[in-house]
């Protein structure tokens, strides 16, 4: 179910433009530069909002050679997949780690993503500075752990700069002891009298040195307080009275913004500012789309040229954002004045982002607008794309926020069902599947419902249940659907029946394109080939699947595990053993019992042939899985052959023609793939329990097996089921 990469917002990975009047604070810039020269590797700029953290770092980088890598963090970056996708996008010009390769590496876990980036950065040999701004917005421990891994494995040509309002939960003490950390704190960022005078434009507004010193003392050198003081020094202001009354603490600054700054604006500008506050980032066209204006670009550029609380995000003057202090005050004021207008603006922003293909931003705005059904529609329609680029955390978060709709929104229910299935939460998957079936009265989700139903049966080790689930004729609108229909038939041993479905899956995957289906469908074809004695064809298909997966960075998918198992069974020596172990390693990442059993049986078969001690463990694990399966399909049959071949079976498995069964025995046989007990089968057939037991023993003898599960597969192989 692969899809296109998620949209990457360019302004999140573009260093903001320094303000029109920029003070190049040499004492701090020199400290940052010295940190790079000394190879310390980590710079922590930690101070409250409005301290000038981002402006300092941006100004430092603007004046040094090379292209910095910059990531502007927002709340959505709590998703590890999204976070590292954006880090890779930030590094694209200096160390080309593509977002697509990061998404694929996530299948192996966050450590793999970090390792890929470390290796790529080290290979460039060029000096790279990676800035992660507003890192305090990250709260996910998995992201913190992976960032600390990046720092721990940091190549010597990489400097990581964390800009944050408070210290991150990483081991700073260890970095200090190793002299690998440079720290810039709130006290360091406080403006001295000279810097404050420049920021206040003292000479032009008529402030003497004493007045500057008093304002600096009242604001404690806090950048935001000084900026707001400079905005207040308009013509006609009593400078002495202003200096005596102004206080620069956080609360008073907020009061100033809310009471004096906003009141000083004309109605048109104030309305625009309030409307624009719903956007974290804004361009002229986006602002026009959300607010209904027609000159958004001109207005934004004019505003940024006169107000240091409006920050340019690129060098072309296209994208801007409000300083956090101003944005927060504007949002509170908008909510106070007109909460209905606020909801309308968020809804308009959601629709604008949807048209741009930025579905995560669209969902966030629709949720803020209270348009929950529309948000659920977007999640349902685009969850596959998000999941295919590793955004399971984001999708899970959306589903949690929309949990009150799970019982009434069929699309959201089926997405929750698939996500729960992938995570191995079968009870939740079944519950959501039941909801989706109840709600899908028009058959819109029929294909996904049928596929999920079949896959749950297969994962639980009930191939017969999977076959029953996919019996009905449902239109195939997504390549995943025919792949599942064919795959279940393969695992049931119905190889000829699987062919047209797998062919359709290949054709649809090539048309879309769908790299996931294109990689996995040949794996099912390879299993069918080796089970029908076509070893050369099986190896060709397996090699092709692995090459395709590797080329598309899908090589860590659990669903390609059996391709490695096929390579193992058609190879010799260490190559065979290594491939067998790789198949088991990948299969363990999936909750699918039938697939894991087949991989383990393959590994045991190869392991015994090469006298490897782990073969016994693989075999025992495979048997333990089969023993709890209702119908393990060809995995159970193959396991029986492995046990027989290597002298581990209590009774040899028998292939070939079987003795004809009586009509009574066939009646009992038809119930064996079900979960019914022998007593329940007797009740269904209106016969005694002893009669069922007698017929069952006769069936096992004639089929040459020693149990119910093996009897089901042999009967299926011989066309009796």
From TrEMBL:
<dbReference type="InterPro" id="IPR011990">
    <property type="entry name" value="TPR-like_helical_dom_sf"/>
</dbReference>
<dbReference type="InterPro" id="IPR016032">
    <property type="entry name" value="Sig_transdc_resp-reg_C-effctor"/>
</dbReference>
<keyword id="KW-0238">DNA-binding</keyword>
<dbReference type="InterPro" id="IPR000792">
    <property type="entry name" value="Tscrpt_reg_LuxR_C"/>
</dbReference>
<protein>
    <submittedName>
        <fullName>LuxR family maltose regulon positive regulatory protein</fullName>
    </submittedName>
</protein>
<dbReference type="InterPro" id="IPR059106">
    <property type="entry name" value="WHD_MalT"/>
</dbReference>
<dbReference type="InterPro" id="IPR036388">
    <property type="entry name" value="WH-like_DNA-bd_sf"/>
</dbReference>
<feature type="domain" description="HTH luxR-type">
    <location>
        <begin position="654"/>
        <end position="719"/>
    </location>
</feature>
<dbReference type="Pfam" id="PF25873">
    <property type="entry name" value="WHD_MalT"/>
</dbReference>
<keyword id="KW-0804">Transcription</keyword>
<dbReference type="GO" id="GO:0006355">
    <property type="term" value="P:regulation of DNA-templated transcription"/>
</dbReference>
<dbReference type="Pfam" id="PF00196">
    <property type="entry name" value="GerE"/>
</dbReference>
<dbReference type="InterPro" id="IPR027417">
    <property type="entry name" value="P-loop_NTPase"/>
</dbReference>
<keyword id="KW-0805">Transcription regulation</keyword>
<dbReference type="GO" id="GO:0003677">
    <property type="term" value="F:DNA binding"/>
</dbReference>
């Amino acid at each position: 179910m692969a899809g296109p990469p998620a949209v990457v917002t360019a302004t999140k990975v573009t260093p903001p433009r320094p303000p029109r009047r920029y003070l190049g604070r040499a004492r701090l810039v020199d400290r940052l530069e010295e940190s790079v020269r000394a190879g310390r590797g980590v710079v922590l700029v930690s101070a409250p909002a409005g301290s000038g953290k981002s402006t300092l770092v941006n100004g430092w980088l603007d004046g040094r050679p090379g292209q910095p890598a910059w990531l502007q963090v927002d709340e959505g970056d709590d998703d590890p997949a999204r976070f590292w996708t954006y880090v890779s996008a930030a590094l694209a010009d200096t160390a080309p780690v593509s977002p697509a390769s990061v998404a694929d590496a996530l299948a192996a876990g966050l450590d793999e993503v970090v390792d890929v980036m470390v290796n790529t950065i080290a290979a460039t040999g060029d000096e790279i500075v990676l800035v992660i701004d507003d890192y305090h917005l990250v709260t996910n421990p998995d992201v913190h752990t992976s960032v600390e891994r990046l720092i721990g494995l940091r190549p010597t040509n990489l400097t990581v700069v964390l800009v944050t309002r408070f210290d991150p939960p990483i081991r700073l003490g260890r970095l200090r002891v190793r002299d690998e950390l440079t720290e810039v704190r709130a006290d360091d960022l406080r403006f001295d009298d000279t810097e404050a005078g420049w920021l206040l434009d003292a000479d032009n507004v008529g402030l003497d040195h004493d007045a500057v010193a008093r304002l600096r003392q009242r604001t404690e050198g806090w950048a935001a307080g000084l900026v707001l003081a400079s905005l207040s020094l308009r013509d006609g202001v009593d400078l002495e009275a202003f200096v005596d009354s102004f206080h620069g603490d956080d609360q008073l600054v907020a009061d100033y913004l809310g009471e004096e700054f906003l009141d000083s604006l004309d109605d048109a500008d104030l309305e625009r500012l309030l409307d624009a506050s719903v956007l974290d980032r804004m361009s002229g066209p986006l602002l026009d789309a959300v607010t209904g204006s027609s000159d958004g670009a001109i207005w934004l550029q004019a505003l940024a040229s006169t107000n240091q609380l409006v920050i340019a995000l690129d060098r072309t003057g296209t994208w801007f954002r409000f300083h956090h202090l101003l944005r927060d005050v504007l949002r509170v004021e908008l909510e106070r004045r007109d909460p209905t207008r606020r909801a309308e603006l968020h809804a308009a922003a959601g629709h604008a982002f949807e048209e741009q293909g930025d579905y995560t931003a669209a969902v966030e705005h629709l949720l803020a607008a209270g348009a929950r059904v529309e948000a659920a529609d977007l999640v349902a329609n685009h969850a596959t794309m998000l999941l295919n680029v590793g955004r399971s955390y984001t999708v899970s978060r959306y589903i949690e926020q929309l949990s009150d709709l799970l019982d009434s929104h069929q699309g959201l229910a089926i997405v929750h069902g698939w996500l729960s299935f992938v995570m191995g939460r079968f009870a939740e998957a079944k519950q959501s599947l039941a909801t989706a079936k109840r709600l899908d009265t028009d058959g819109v989700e029929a294909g996904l419902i049928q596929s999920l139903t079949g896959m749950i049966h297969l994962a639980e080790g009930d191939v017969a249940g999977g076959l029953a689930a996919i019996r009905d004729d449902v239109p195939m609108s997504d390549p995943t659907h025919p792949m599942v229909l064919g795959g279940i038939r393969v695992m049931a041993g119905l190889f000829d029946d699987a062919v047209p479905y797998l062919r359709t899956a290949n054709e649809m995957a090539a048309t879309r394109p769908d790299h996931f289906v294109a990689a996995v469908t040949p794996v099912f074809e390879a299993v069918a080939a080796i089970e029908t004695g076509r070893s050369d064809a099986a190896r060709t298909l397996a090699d092709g699947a692995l090459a395709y997966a590797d080329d598309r960075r899908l090589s860590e998918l659990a669903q390609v595990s059996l391709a490695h198992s096929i390579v193992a069974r058609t190879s010799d020596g260490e190559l065979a053993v290594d491939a067998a172990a790789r198949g088991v390693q990948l299969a363990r990442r999936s909750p699918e019992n039938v697939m894991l059993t087949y991989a383990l049986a393959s590994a045991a078969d190869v392991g015994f042939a090469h006298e490897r001690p782990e073969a016994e463990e693989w075999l025992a694990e495979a048997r333990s899985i089969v023993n709890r399966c209702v119908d393990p399909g060809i995995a159970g049959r193959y396991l029986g052959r492995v046990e027989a071949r290597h002298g581990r079976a209590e009774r040899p498995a028998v292939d070939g023609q079987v003795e004809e069964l009586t009509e009574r025995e066939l009646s009992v046989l038809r119930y064996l793939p079900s979960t019914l007990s022998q007593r329940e089968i007797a009740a269904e057939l209106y016969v005694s329990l002893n009669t069922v037991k007698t017929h069952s023993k006769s069936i096992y003898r004639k089929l040459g097996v020693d149990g119910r599960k093996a009897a089901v597969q042999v009967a299926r192989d011989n066309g009796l089921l």
